[in-house]
Amino acid sequence: RDLTHKLVELNSYKGCMDPDSPNFHLRNNIDNPAACDSKVNGTMIGGFFVSCTGDHDKTVFDDDFWGPSAREESLNCDGVNPITSGQSCPAGFKQTVVYRDPIRTINVCYAESEPEEGNAYLFGGIYSNNQ
After folding, report:
1. pTM here?
2. pLDDT at residue 104 tops 60
């Protein structure tokens, strides 16, 4: 059941489903009529992603205290960016580190230049880059 909910969550794209709107995108599968109302002028953020080092088994988690699943849940490093369908930033976006600890590095994708008018990406997605 949890897996089903997770798969539905990962494959849900809320947005404009009106093909006559400039904000329409084929990937949207949950209708949000408000997203059709105004023209999107782009975004400077292209998503976030997490990179994990090979040392993630040597964490400071105490399995007796937190439980064995705490380690796996906190090190969720297995995903793809829904915009790129891979472990990368969208075209025109560059990554930079916003947080780093001994196990994880969190990156943000930002626009290399001013976004083009009519760019329909409101969010570039989340993914991880296992190392």
Report:
1. 0.42
2. yes
